Amino acid sequence: MKNYAHEVRGPILTNIYNLSERPPKYFKRESADVNFREADARHMHHPHNDALVVNALIGGTNVYQMLVDNGSSVNILAYSTYQKIGLVDNELLPFYNDVYGFTGPPVLVVGRIKLPVTLGEEPWTATRITEFVVVNEDISYNGIIGRPLLREMRIITFIHHFSIKFPTPNGIGWVKGCHVDSRECYNRALHMAM
After folding, report:
1. By the number of CB atoms within 10 A of the CB, which of 13, 67, 96, 178 ranks highest?
2. Helix, strand or coil, per DSSP, at residue 168
3. Is residue 68 predicted with pLDDT exceeding 90?
4. What is the pLDDT of residue 121?
5. 35 by DSSP, 3-state: which?
6. Are 119 and 125 a contacting pair, CB within 8 Å?
7. What is the pTM of this model?
8. Distance CA 125, CA 65 (A)
9. What domains appear along the chain, each with residue ranges and CATH number?
10. 3-state helix, strand, coil in the chain (%, to 5)
């Protein structure tokens, strides 16, 4: 949070249209266009208002019911999920900032940890080590993929197609959301609110 606030107060960027100032490429196929075709939306339930919920490989474990949230300023992992992955508390680093949800009061933060996250299916996978804030609150998802990971992996979300796409060394990776998981998490959230 403090780093982000510092970046905002930093000098105003100039020459943003100067391509000679472009950072080095990530992959050979970085310039591949990311597009969503109408054919990609086949087998989706339309119309829908489901939250985008995907599966991810986190710390070597398949983690289901991860919410993709463009509005979250941190990546979040539920403490129960953290324990199911097989990680122990002494691996957690302290987290000194508060995390707020829509309900007002701050959520109970246990700590933070950096874990590898892999998205996609072979050969179109991408892996990044990213920081998760571990919270000990009842949340209806196993975790939240927030803006930090979305930015690091250069993920593009498209709700109509209920999927995400991102560049990989072998082309464009793609992960479809799961309507069943999304609705299960939504129903769980409704029951927790009652």
Report:
1. 67
2. strand
3. yes
4. 94
5. coil
6. yes
7. 0.80
8. 19
9. 45-193 (2.40.70.10)
10. 25, 35, 40
